[in-house]
TrEMBL record:
<feature type="repeat" description="WD">
    <location>
        <begin position="85"/>
        <end position="116"/>
    </location>
</feature>
<dbReference type="InterPro" id="IPR011047">
    <property type="entry name" value="Quinoprotein_ADH-like_sf"/>
</dbReference>
<dbReference type="InterPro" id="IPR001680">
    <property type="entry name" value="WD40_rpt"/>
</dbReference>
<dbReference type="GO" id="GO:0006364">
    <property type="term" value="P:rRNA processing"/>
</dbReference>
<feature type="repeat" description="WD">
    <location>
        <begin position="291"/>
        <end position="332"/>
    </location>
</feature>
<keyword id="KW-0677">Repeat</keyword>
<dbReference type="Pfam" id="PF25171">
    <property type="entry name" value="Beta-prop_WDR36-Utp21_1st"/>
</dbReference>
<feature type="repeat" description="WD">
    <location>
        <begin position="374"/>
        <end position="410"/>
    </location>
</feature>
<dbReference type="InterPro" id="IPR059157">
    <property type="entry name" value="WDR36-Utp21_N"/>
</dbReference>
<dbReference type="Pfam" id="PF25168">
    <property type="entry name" value="Beta-prop_WDR36-Utp21_2nd"/>
</dbReference>
<dbReference type="InterPro" id="IPR015943">
    <property type="entry name" value="WD40/YVTN_repeat-like_dom_sf"/>
</dbReference>
<dbReference type="InterPro" id="IPR007319">
    <property type="entry name" value="WDR36/Utp21_C"/>
</dbReference>
<feature type="domain" description="WDR36/Utp21 N-terminal">
    <location>
        <begin position="2"/>
        <end position="119"/>
    </location>
</feature>
<feature type="domain" description="WDR36/Utp21 C-terminal">
    <location>
        <begin position="501"/>
        <end position="703"/>
    </location>
</feature>
<dbReference type="GO" id="GO:0032040">
    <property type="term" value="C:small-subunit processome"/>
</dbReference>
<protein>
    <submittedName>
        <fullName>WD repeat-containing protein 36</fullName>
    </submittedName>
</protein>
<dbReference type="InterPro" id="IPR019775">
    <property type="entry name" value="WD40_repeat_CS"/>
</dbReference>
Length: 707
């Protein structure tokens, strides 16, 4: 009907009335029942992208445009009442008034969702709250701080943002980099595109002095100067760090690092120069090397945790170690290929290097030697990350794979493929999440570390291992079925290891009994004196009901007594009192068959008082015999021969000697057994003592030697 393309349709609050947005920027309010046009409005910002009506009593219509502006029209007076300019930096994709509320929700291609409230006297919208991400793919991400709750991310849209892993309300944007922030403030420029800095390519952050001065240093695409940023103020800093004497225009900053103290920034340039700047004052503090540190472009710079050593690497394939204070070259290492990425784990002094031949070299900065070499990627390695303890190295490459290398064993322990190549990886300082960014994706993806909450096999992957493809989470509904099919896979869990009672017959093995069962056997008299009650126990008036139990270390319920004979005799049977214990009977059996395992188990199940009673009853005066005492000594000899339950054998023998020492010399059989035992104990202890002395000697040397 209007000979123009229709771009938006919206039902009005009135019955049978529809708002129609056209390509020309016209909005037509039309009654579709009678086919009558009620009113027309026109916006000069291009086609109408979306339309919405207020339903809280105000006859207002909002219309979106491709410029990011929103027009507010009064339907009674048929006029424009307000303009919301630059509501979004890109086209308005959708806008909706919430039902019966003065709230307008808008979104756009700038990856922002904003809620505007209309509570002013003139009817203009005020920004109430918003959620915003990057509007272009990411260039670099890094965890910020030590709590693992903030991720700093730089994007091709020129912004630097902080995302919280706890809740979205803690997200914040540090804004666009501006060439001259003071000029923008003074002149109040609305369109800052002409003074914005190019996208950040690499950045380094340190929170040590964030409350005193800027703690983030960033290098920009095609720019020589590096910008500083302040995390607490959420803004670009006061300084642009660049050498003064540079005359060439094609030199750019390619690598940055900030010291662990937050005082110095180290910047590497494409000309091979590496400079040091003070973060507080922005003053140049010197350069490494006479003219330049490297002949080629600087690919990576790193400073150790104590500001003693600076490591730089260049495209010519050299890795150089410098003294941080006097800028003198200490050592140089020639690499097999040109390096692409360099990463230092400051706590352990381990340096990771990703080379252009798709291999990874790991160096120890103390010995300055290559300690591990990994190969397996089929494409350029984009980024690497160390686990907080320095045991894992995680690498992401253009072959769409993320691999986890175990540094102590030098093996690949995890590998998975993605449907989009990963550009950046960053491991949380707490080790619970791995953050990744991907080609043509605006978001940061978090991967949970399964080894923190379940049993995972960390065995090396076989050479013919085929990694599975993991689909990145998205809003497309067709992916749901595929993901559910892939997640049902048998998990490779670690095989539970059953430890034998003794690893080797030659090894002295201790029992698993607690110390309270054997350590105080010689001091039972003192303990009983201390624990003697001052007054007899009193029976409580209303005692609770308890199921009767059998006394012992392992709780067991007592069986009910069968009292069949009501006239039971009260005469005590002396034969019952003189009955031998189970332990004595098992010792007598041991004399015959030379097996003492059952008797030993009975002692293990007894408490200290029970053990003393059993050993005291072995003497002939207390119902035992010389043969039973001889059998007990043979049992101790068997324990020493096997080298099992070593501490129990010593404790039981010590208590036996304390109780029966006066009687032993009068019995030749027992004297002979004791002599044999004495040589056994001395032989075992001499061997143990030599091992202890050797270990103590090595420990003392390691503690005192100057390595």
């Amino acid at each position: 009907g209007w000979k123009l393309g229709v771009t938006a349709l919206q039902q009005a609050p009135a019955v049978d009335v529809v708002a129609i947005g056209l390509m020309s920027g016209q909005v037509i309010i039309h009654n579709i029942k009678f086919n009558e046009t009620l009113m027309k409005f026109r916006q000069d910002w291009g086609p109408i992208t979306s339309i919405s009506f207020r339903t809280d009593g105000h006859p207002v219509m909002a219309a979106g445009s491709p410029c990011g502006h929103i027009g507010l029209w009064d339907l009674e007076d048929k006029k424009l009442i307000n303009q919301m300019r630059n509501a979004h930096s890109t086209a308005i994709a959708g806008l909706t008034f919430l039902h019966r509320e003065p709230l307008l929700v808008t979104n756009g291609a700038d990856n922002a969702l904003r809620i505007w409230i209309f509570d002013g006297p003139t009817g203009e919208g005020r920004l109430l709250r918003f959620r915003m991400g990057h509007s272009a793919p990411l260039t670099s991400i890094r965890y910020y701080g030590q709590n693992g709750q903030q991720i700093l991310s730089a994007s091709q849209d020129g912004t630097l943002q902080s995302f919280s892993t706890v809740h979205e309300k803690f997200n914040k944007s540090l804004g666009h980099g501006l060439i001259n922030k003071k000029r923008v403030k003074r002149k109040g420029l609305q369109n800052t595109m002409s003074v914005r800095l190019p996208p950040i390519t690499k950045f380094a952050a340190e929170e040590a002095r964030e409350s005193d001065w800027d703690g983030i240093i960033a290098c920009h695409q095609g720019k020589l100067s590096c910008s500083t940023w302040n995390y607490q103020k959420s803004t670009i800093g006061a300084y642009f760090l660049k050498p003064k004497e540079m005359k060439k225009d094609d030199i750019t900053a390619t690598a940055v690092d900030i010291t662990s103290c937050g005082n110095f920034a180290v910047i590497g340039l494409s000309s091979g120069t590496v400079d040091v700047y003070n973060m507080q004052s922005g003053i140049h503090r010197g350069s490494f090397g006479k003219d330049q540190a490297h002949k080629g472009s600087v690919r990576g710079v790193a400073v150790d945790g104590l500001n003693q050593l600076t490591v730089t690497t260049g495209s010519e394939g050299l890795l150089k170690f410098w003294n941080f204070k006097n800028k003198i070259l200490i050592h140089s290492v020639s690499l097999s290929s040109s390096p692409n990425v360099m990463l230092l784990h400051r706590d352990s002094g381990i340096l990771g290097l990703a080379l252009d031949d798709f291999s990874i070299s790991v160096l120890d900065i103390e010995t300055r030697k290559i300690v591990r070499e990994f190969s397996g990627h089929q494409g350029q390695i984009n980024d690497m990350a160390f686990s907080p303890d320095g045991r894992w190295l995680i690498s992401a490459a253009m072959d769409c794979s993320i691999r986890t290398w175990d540094l102590p064993s030098g093996c690949l322990i995890d590998c998975f493929l993605l449907d989009s190549a990963p550009l950046n990886v960053s491991m949380s300082p707490t080790g619970d999440f791995l953050a990744t960014s991907h080609v043509d994706h605006l978001g940061i993806f978090l991967w949970s570390n399964i080894s923190l909450y379940s049993v995972v096999s960390l065995r090396p992957l076989p050479a013919d291992y085929v990694p599975s493809v993991v689909m990145l989470p998205g809003t497309c509904q067709t992916q749901d079925v595929e993901v559910s099919e892939e997640t049902v896979e048998p998990s490779d869990e670690m095989i539970e290891y059953d430890s034998p009672e003794q690893l080797n017959e030659q090894l002295v093995t201790l029992s698993l009994l607690p110390e309270s069962r054997w350590k105080n056997l010689l001091n039972l008299d003192v303990i009983k004196k201390k624990n003697k009650p001052k007054e007899p126990p009193k029976v409580p008036k209303s005692a609770p009901f308890f199921i009767p139990t059998i006394p012992g270390l392992v709780p067991r319920y007592a069986a009910p007594e069968q009292n069949n004979d009501p006239q039971q005799s009260k005469v005590v049977n002396l034969g019952v009192l003189a009955q031998k214990s189970d332990f004595c009977l098992k010792l007598e059996e041991g004399l015959v068959n030379n097996k003492y395992d059952t008797a030993l188990n009975l002692l293990k199940e007894s408490g200290p008082s029970g053990i003393e009673t059993e050993l005291r009853s072995l003497s002939p005066d207390c119902g035992g015999s010389v043969e039973v005492m001889q059998s007990f000594l043979k049992m101790i000899g068997m324990m020493l021969d096997r080298k099992r339950d070593f501490e129990l054998a010593q404790a039981y023998l010590a208590l036996f000697l304390k109780l029966h020492l006066k009687m032993l010399p009068s019995e030749p059989v027992l004297l002979e057994e004791i002599t044999n035992l004495s040589s056994q104990v001395e032989e075992n202890w001499t061997h143990l003592q030599s091992l202890f002395n050797q270990s103590m000697c090595i420990l003392n040397y390691l503690k005192s030697a100057l390595l």
